[in-house]
Fold:
Amino acid sequence: MKRQLLSGNESIAMGAAHAGIRLAAAYPGTPSTEILEAVARLPQIYTEWSSNEAVAVEVGLGASYAGIRALVSMKHVGLNVAADAFMSAATTGVRGGLVIVSADDPGIHSSQNEQDSRNYARLGKVPCLEPSNSQEAYNFTRAAFQISEDFDTPVLLRPTTRVCHSKSVVETKETISNDAKATFKHDHGKLVMLPGAARERGPKLTERLKKLAEYAETSPLNTVISGSTKLGIITSGISFHYAREIFPEASYLKLGISYPLPIKLINQFSQQVEKIVVIEELEGFLELHIKAMGLSVHGKDYFPIEGEFSPDVVSAAAIRAGLLDVQPHKSVAPASSLAKRPPLLCPGCPHSGIFFTLSTLGHRSTLPGKITRTPKLTICGDIGCYTLGAYPPLSAIDTCGCMGAGISHAAGMTKAGLEEKPLAVIGDSTFMHSGINGLLNAVYNQSNICILILDNSTTAMTGHQGHPGSGASSAGQPVTKISIEELVRGAGVRQVTVVDAFNLKSIRAALKQSMDSPELEVIIIHGDCPTLTRKRGKPRQINTRCDDCGACLLIGCSAIQRDGSSIIIDQSVCVGEYCTLCQQICPKDAITDLESTV
Ligand code: SF4
Ligand code: SF4
Structure:
């Protein structure tokens, strides 16, 4: 037995590795990204960044069909993308253990919505396990592989942001041998879901769920902690720790398996306490099912349905509900002196010049003292670093829904009869994830839109993971790099222009030409992500020719700031000649490198 300080994500990776997985697939997404990164450090396990979450589940399921244990991980919104593949896995069941991690993000720290993945477990009639700390993340992951094989089911593991990213000491166990040979056993009735076979699987899934519910009654993953009989708390995941802090005297039923529920265990627990309260983040999932058992419990009438819990949130709700007289303690508030910083593109970001050009062409940015004009151009954005182009001073994104939606949003607008030609802006990783589907649709249905693919050859927002167009594997090894330009031409796009992200004149010319053209046009804009390359050139400096017009501020570079009455460039972060965007837009030629400054 070894003791290590691990985050929840590292513990899931370690638990899976020690359970003998031979394959792990994922699409990066906060808060789940570090799971695959941690597995990728283990050379004996094949890892991949799949092009999207549905593909990741399909790859994992293929390995499972060959009798190999596999781990698939994603964030909660990724499970929407993978829903079809997830339901297929739920229907056919598995051979080798298959664990699908969907990390929820209560409080929307880094997502486009809050949603509760436990509902997918119910939809697929598969078990859902909820770890509340790193040790449980390790133990539950190991247990999940055994449950998967014992019950012929994929298992949904649902950590939340706080569990994924906080660290605690984990005791690990010995590794289960993983040298089994991959073999495929033909079984049409189980694996080929033609209607006849699928109809036969239905009763098997119902039976599986019944057996899982019986297992949940005595599983060590569900624990009772006896305390005062006045208050019984039913809880799961990280909410358990918040609740214990606020109600140390209460009795607890902590559900490590949050679906299916152990009905007998819950009934027994309810008979031992005077009042039952369910404390759970996000939806009243446990509460709904417990109420359906006919028990009278409180839950979302006391505790919030939105946002992340904390001891303060739980105690404030408990006071409002009359469960507590006074707040037992107040957490330490963040230091008030910390500067509030809006989300910004990094200095030297290749997206800055594109959004600046879109912003000026679209009448969105205005120099200080000038009258604001009605914005022109309709710009459909997507998910990635470049979503930050929505913030001032760039203000150059009008829609942003889910991964890959921007191209189809624009196509929908043009088909709806929008007079002007709409633009779609998408990054290379998101294009590979699902944007390509929108492109194929737009070509096929002759949607005359303008698509800008911002290619920085990485998945920058989640920390520079590889993708099919990056030329780098999950372990950072060089692999075949799929050319976006060839892919786009192969999809039937006739008008493709490739420009340099740091050349404002060519971006402007390409945009004008594409906007005037009656055809579907794709502009691929290449520019390295500065935080990946870490290249630093001679920083720029503002000289005495500056008349304080403020034009350079419109590029939205965080290295350029107003300092009292003058404008300065922060020398410590400017990437200099690898960018020069500010230099290109200064009308007074007042920005130069340090050496040529007079
Ligand atoms: S550096 Fe150039 S763009 Fe910036 S305020 Fe001065 S004159 Fe204007
Ligand atoms: S060259 Fe200008 S725009 Fe580029 S990083 Fe430096 S200050 Fe920012």
